[in-house]
Amino acid sequence: MKIVISGLGIIGGSFAKAVKKYTDNYVIGINRSSPPLEDALACGAIDEIGSAESLKDADMLILGTFPAAAVQFVKDNAYLIPEKCIVIDSCGIKSQICPELTKLSKQYGFKFVGCHPMAGKEKNGFDASEADLFCGASCIIVPCGAEQKSVAAVEAFVKKLGFGKVVYADPEMHDRMIAFTSQIPHVVACAYVMSPVCPSHKGFSAGSYRDVSRVAHINEKLWAELFLENKEPLCDEIDILIKNIERIRDAVKNSKQQELEEILAESRKVKELLGE
What we know:
Elements (H helix, E strand, L loop, with lengths): L1 E5 L3 H13 L3 E5 L3 H10 L4 E2 L10 E4 L3 H11 L8 E4 L8 H11 L2 E7 L20 E5 L5 H13 L4 E4 L2 H23 L13 H7 L6 H10 L1 H23 L3 H17 L3
Parallel strand pairs: 1-2, 1-4, 2-3, 4-5, 5-6, 7-8
Antiparallel strand pairs: 6-7
Helix pairs in contact: 6-9, 9-10
């Protein structure tokens, strides 16, 4: 296939590197700034630096940008995307972008299948991308009404790149689960490191500090957009988290050891039942 990747950050760059490592497909890169394109060409992650005109004979378009930018790119260039082309995104929210991209796909004839690779790092940009970033990771596929042939082609494609599991979801289910599994940990990490004692943690911290604080090294523009576009499910999860924290705080504040033990036992049992 001839694959065009729009946006060569950590995810788009990792897609490019994985495609070149694990398949024989031809990769064309598009990016708003030139240094990532030059680096990608130099290291063999892409075969060609392209432009919107490169979409005219693309078999697949991978959107590696923020949600709003991904939608805008397709809006601006939909007339160039051929009917044979399968468009996939890599965004962390779906309820906001899937209706718009599905509508555009029906209007212009190309195929759209929502995707979300469950992989990443604290660092961003092409320099942080890896050919093996997706190895063993889950890929969530949101079919968005696409024909089964296209959905199956996307599943086969991502499995070639090393994804260990493919999970199917609709946009609403996806966003509710992502609020819990991805967005809430970022909320917790950011709130945690804003304690006034955080700057003095060295010498007093070990694995627990690293585990909780790791994702506070955050891309604030991306995550602010993701939070706001998923605000209802995220706020529901924040409310649940606050309620549970308040239960623990009140038991500690009132020296209720038995109640505190019961609360802590609840959480332990949840993890044990999940086999984790």
